[in-house]
Specification:
With about 300 residues, this protein is of the alpha/beta class. Helices cover about 40% and strands about 15% of the residues. The strands form 4 sheets. Strands 3-2-1-4-5-6-11 form a 7-stranded parallel beta sheet, with helices on both faces. It has a two-stranded parallel sheet with strand order 7-10. A two-stranded parallel sheet has the order 8-13. Helix 1 links the parallel strand 1 and strand 2. The protein starts with a strand and ends with a helix. It binds nicotinamide-adenine-dinucleotide.
Length: about 300
């Protein structure tokens, strides 16, 4: 059934793909974004756009009165692990207080369900057993992961007290078109941008640290499926760990990168392996990743080729 979907962070990397997927699924979409890291050119012209900060309850109230959303896909956040170590209070203000303000307005306006962007990479910490399941103990090692875990707990209380349903989607390492090449989080975006312009790429440490890379269209599809399926916490990953050297080799070939690989010092405190078992999402959301790493990286490099001014 078509719904009125509000996508917070819809001018950002992942949010803009969710907006597109929701519209293609027949939903009516509105976007709330303060353009902190989001870009106006990412705003889908088929969606209504409100330049609003999620911490601003009065502005949210006006948006909800105008849009009357039935479902929210909540992507707006500060999303950088290292940034959170530097500014833990700002991460709590935007990610925790901002989410709470959104939930308060949502429950008052009778919203049915919230899908929240959570994180598999930062919420589990260093697990002895991989892949992580949703029942693995969550011990975030940084304020970013802690802020997302706090949001998951608040979502649980809103379902318990007000019947506001939720899916907390614990994404793996998301990559794809529109990811910021200047950011610190997206290794694929950073490497692709530098390789396409033949600038040296430095791999942190030995490059054998492993991540669960998920193509952004698969993340968007998980949000679309969660409109009608599931309740609670879901890993949205492939269940397949890939090391950074492998990603760099793939990208080098795709980008015709000719310089040799460089390794720098390892980042202290970085998790060695992060991999997310998707069994629950497969069973309850009918979701599984569909885009292989090879295919996803090829699509990503093709997109960066179009937009990067190759010198
Ligand atoms: N990229 C990943 O690999 C990854 C992995 C796990 C989870 N996530 C989560 O997915 C979501 C989207 O991340 P992304 O990678 O697209 O990052 P992004 O920075 O591109 O998107 C975040 C969006 O939120 C907006 N925003 C930030 N603060 C806001 C505020 N106070 N009010 C309104 N809007 C605000 C930004 O302008 C931006 O458009 C985030 O919640 C992030 O924590 C991302």
């Amino acid at each position: 059934m078509p719904e009125r979907v509000l996508v917070t962070g819809g001018a950002g990397f992942i949010g803009s793909h969710i907006v597109e997927a929701m519209i293609n699924a027949g939903h009516t979409v509105a976007i709330v974004d303060n353009l902190h890291t989001g870009k106006i050119e990412n705003v889908n012209p088929r969606a209504e756009f409100f330049q609003v900060d999620i911490r601003d309850s009065a502005a949210l109230e006006r948006v909800f009165t105008a849009v009357r959303p039935s479902v929210i896909s909540h992507q707006a956040a500060l999303a950088n692990v290292r940034g959170s170590l530097e500014y833990p209070d700002q991460y709590a203000e935007v990610n925790v207080i901002g989410t709470l303000r959104l939930l308060e307005v949502a429950r008052r306006h009778g919203v049915r369900k919230v899908m929240m962007a959570s994180t598999g990479g930062a919420i589990y910490g260093e697990l002895p057993q991989q892949p992580a399941t949703e029942d693995s103990v969550a011990h975030p090692l940084d304020p970013y992961g802690a802020s997302k875990l706090a949001c998951e707990h608040y979502l649980f209380t809103y379902r318990h007290n007000y019947g506001l349903d939720y899916c907390a989607l614990r994404y793996g390492n998301v990559y794809g078109p529109r990811q910021d090449m200047q950011g610190e989080a997206g290794v694929v975006a950073i490497f692709a941008g530098r390789m396409l312009s033949q600038q040296p790429v430095v791999i942190n440490g030995d490059g054998l640290q492993q991540r669960d890379f998920v193509y952004v269209a698969d993340i968007a599809r998980a949000n679309v499926l969660a409109v009608d399926h599931g309740s609670g916490i879901y890993n949205i990953g492939t269940g397949v760990p890939t090391n950074i050297n492998t990603v760099a080799h793939h990208l080098a070939k795709l980008a015709d990168y000719t310089l040799s690989e460089e390794h720098g010092p390892a980042k202290p405190g970085e998790v060695r392996t992060s991999c997310l078992g998707p069994a629950r999402a497969m069973q309850e959301l009918q979701w599984r990743s569909q885009v292989s790493l090879t295919e996803g990286l090829a699509r990503t490099v093709a997109w960066y080729r179009e937009v990067v001014q190759v010198v």
